[in-house]
Design goal:
Chain A is an alpha+beta fold. Chain A is 56% helix and 10% strand. Chain A has helices at residues 7-23, 26-33, 41-49, 68-80, 87-103, 107-118, 189-228, 240-268, 274-300, 311-323, 328-341, and strands spanning 124-127, 133-135, 142-147, 150-154, 160-163, 173-177, 185-187, 230-231, 234-235. Chain B has helices at residues 7-23, 35-50, 69-81, 90-103, 106-117, 232-244, 251-271, 278-305, 314-336, 353-363, 372-383, and strands spanning 123-126, 142-146, 149-160, 167-173, 184-190, 196-201, 210-221, 225-226. Classes of the chains: A alpha+beta (356), B alpha+beta (389).
Chain lengths: 356, 389
């Protein structure tokens, strides 16, 4: 039993943080919000240089061969920076899905795409049964779409996209009109269901990890503002009414952190508790981030309510991530089903460990 | 990251489980806030100590088992799983013990720790005074050095376990001209010393769980000082860290309550009683929060075992577990309907009265060990870096 990250994992996190602090500023995010695609090929190439899309690609396919325990800290940083690029769909979901398809006897697709993902030359969009929308379909080189118990690998030319207007400018979502056909089907039946479930959990975990970063950043922004803004002749951060709001947000963020890290471990190792662990992570981290958003806004006051101030960039991230890859209602229902509705005893961490 | 138990840890769990199954009293003991219950709990502690399980993480020489903190967490899980009695000497074993380990002289460790482990000496806390509650630096009780003794005068209050405890630890002003947190010294005082008067105070439960303690020229030997003279504040902060952090409230306690709550929900559902639909969500939330507390503790313990330290983070814990404890008990009471009003032992209570007892106890959580408002100030100033003034 050892619940720590390694020095290498922390170093990777720091590398990504340093990179994003320099390159992915609020100004950069705002600029992207105002472009047609909202995405930057140039920026994606830089992310590829530091290895982000390659993390979960196997080494033999040109990737770094890491797992979700390495990725989770990186995703946290992308949330912290409000990064508006398809890291979740391409790096966290598509790469391991293609790897698993290869393991189940579909090596062609993986051979074609994994190397390109790793080098930053391909973006993959993913569609799943819990959402009517597909993120980043407009810049995707490949779409991996769920249909009943099947997964289809679809070329962008064969789908019709309708752009939706997302409240979060960092998010670009589309309704996708497409027709599943035999040639595009890459998994079905039991395998299809398993891969869909695993992919969905990876997406939800990725959202949870980003929410950790979003929540922490919102608190830091509010702390900075409250330390500088004076009223009644003193910094407003000296008032307990301000302190206690931000302390409460900090408690929530810190108490979702280990839940998210545990879920990363469960996903990486395909543990039987994976789905419930992921739902708990998504719920707790989203609740913390959306709570932090509300408290930060109140600390900022009217200035935080303006479009000009950067705060809303992270507030909108917290809200959109809360809905992506399963809403809070959906995940809460999944946990409730496993914990209170099930006839089985609830499996709590540690406590229920086998004695054999 | 490796979230599985080693073979040694599994064997440790098995050994603890076997001993507890064979030795835990089959009937619950009376509350340790009564004299009868206090004595029964001391007897249990004696048995636990003889079995070598009283102080799992302490060094063997002081009556412990020399286990690491992970094994301690495992032991706690098994302890709560077995439904074993509450720890009557928790002020001593979880708070003062670790502080003596850190600040005590070899003589003090040898003198106090083994008798603490066996609960031959049960400890009360002596922090608060009538004018020093949240503002603990306003302590006025004095301990003036005379030769090889300190002469203590003043009053302590809300001394947990004070009604029956044998010893008290607390902070006293050794420099009468000093102000605030300067000039304070951490002293260990026997409750039966001449000049010490104990007046038990009944809690809202009606039981004398804590006490006012009056010192009137009470003399304690200078060797009962823990740490340097005038350094009491730093020593006390270490104790407070243990209190707010993982030692006093191990996660197993809350996981155990959460599991009971899930069982209560299922049974209430099966009984056909009307259930507020919101309660299903609240029960789920409680269970998740207990898991979150556990995972956080495992991560903290891993950090400590890897040579890390915890400081102000203990304040995050204290808020989380104290609020969770209340929420779990409130949810349970909401499930019980009108039976929520029944005290333990009431004919129709059928064993559910413990939830009421637990609720009343939980309500103290955000107050003791430094109110949650104080914890929020600590988080804001020392973790988040908000300005003090």
């Amino acid at each position: 039993m050892e619940f720590n990250f390694s020095e290498d994992q922390e170093l990777l996190q720091q590398t990504v943080r340093d990179f994003l602090e320099g390159e992915c500023t609020a100004e950069h995010v705002r600029q992207l919000w105002n472009t047609e695609t909202g995405r930057s090929a140039e920026f994606w190439a830089k992310l590829a240089e530091i290895g982000v899309p390659a993390l979960l690609v196997p080494e033999e396919a040109g990737g770094l061969g890491m797992d979700e325990r390495d990725l989770v800290l990186v995703l946290e940083e992308t949330g912290r920076a409000a990064l508006a690029e398809p890291v979740i769909s391409t790096a966290a979901v598509a790469a391991p899905l293609l790897r698993e398809l290869a393991q189940s006897g579909k090596p062609g697709l993986a051979e074609k795409w994994l190397g390109r993902i790793a080098e930053g030359a391909a973006i993959v969009a993913v569609g799943h049964g819990q959402s009517p929308f597909v993120s980043d379909a407009h810049v995707a080189d490949l779409l991996l779409l769920a249909h009943a118990d099947e997964i289809h690998a679809v070329e962008p030319g064969s789908v019709d996209l309708t752009a939706e207007k997302s409240n979060d400018g960092s998010q670009r979502i589309f309704s996708v009109d497409w027709t599943p056909v035999g040639e595009t089907r890459v998994a079905e039946g039991e395998l299809g269901r398993e891969l869909q479930a695993a992919s969905f959990d990876r997406g939800a975990l990725a959202c949870a990890a980003q929410q950790l970063g979003v929540g922490q950043r919102l608190i830091e922004m509010a702390v900075l503002y409250a330390s500088q803004r004076t009223q009644f002749g003193v910094a407003i951060g000296t008032f307990q009414a301000i302190k206690h709001r931000l302390a409460n947000a900090k408690v929530k963020v810190e108490y979702s952190r280990s839940v998210v890290y545990r879920a990363a471990n469960s996903v990486a190792l395909h543990l039987p508790t994976r789905s419930v662990d992921v739902s708990m992570a998504k719920l707790t981290a989203s609740e913390a981030a959306t709570f932090a958003a509300k408290e930060a806004l109140q600390v900022y006051g009217a200035i935080g309510y303006t479009y000009e101030e950067d705060l809303h960039i992270w507030m909108k991230r917290a809200w959109s991530l809360d809905l992506a890859f399963g809403t809070g209602a959906w995940h809460r229902e999944r946990v409730a089903g496993a914990v209170v509705d099930s006839a089985l005893p609830a499996e709590s961490f540690g406590y229920s460990a086998p004695t054999a | 990251m490796d979230l599985t138990y080693t073979l040694e840890q599994q064997a440790f769990r098995k050994e603890a489980r076997a001993w507890l199954e064979a030795n835990v009293p089959t009937e619950p003991l009376p509350s340790f806030d009564t004299k009868e219950g206090f004595d029964a709990h001391c007897d249990w502690e004696k048995k636990l100590n003889e079995g070598g399980w009283a102080m799992v993480p302490w060094p063997v020489e002081y009556g412990g088992r020399g286990a690491d903190l992970l094994e301690w967490l495992i032991f706690e899980e098994e302890y709560y799983r077995a439904g074993a009695p509450g720890r009557v000497n928790q002020n001593g074993i979880f708070l003062l013990g670790p502080t003596i380990m850190e600040y005590g002289t070899p003589e003090q460790r040898a003198r106090f720790l083994p008798k603490m482990a066996s609960s031959e000496e049960v400890w009360a806390q002596g922090w608060s005074e009538p004018n020093a509650g949240s503002d603990m630096a306003n302590i006025q009780a004095t301990a003036i050095r005379e030769g090889n003794e300190y002469v203590i005068n003043g009053q302590k209050t809300w001394a947990s376990r004070g009604a029956y405890a044998h010893w008290l630890f607390g902070m006293f002003r050794t420099d009468p001209d000093s102000k605030r947190h300067h000039g304070l010294t951490f002293i260990l005082a026997p409750m039966d010393a001449p000049g010490v008067t104990v007046r038990p105070i009944e809690k809202i439960s009606g039981k004398p769980a804590f006490a006012e303690v009056f010192f009137d020229d009470a003399r304690v030997p200078a060797e009962n000082r823990l740490g340097e003279e005038g350094q009491g504040w730093s020593v006390a902060m270490a104790t407070a860290g243990f209190e707010r952090g993982l030692m006093l409230r191990s996660p197993a306690r809350f996981q155990n309550t959460a599991r009971k709550l899930v069982d209560l929900y299922r049974k209430t559902l099966q009984s056909g009683a009307a259930i507020d639909p919101a309660l299903r969500g609240r029960v789920t939330q409680c269970w998740m929060a207990a898991e979150a507390y556990t995972l956080n503790t495992y991560q903290t313990v891993s950090k400590l075992l890897a040579g890390g330290k915890i400081g102000a983070e203990a304040s995050l814990n204290k808020i989380f577990w104290s609020e969770l404890d209340i929420e779990m008990h409130e949810t349970a009471l909401a499930l019980l309907g009108e039976r929520a009003e029944l005290k333990p032992g009431s004919p129709a209570a059928q064993g559910v009265g413990d939830w009421l007892d637990g609720y009343i106890f939980a309500l103290a959580g955000p107050i003791y060990a430094g109110t949650n408002e104080i914890q929020r100030n600590i988080i804001a100033e020392r973790i988040l870096g908000l300005p003090r003034k």
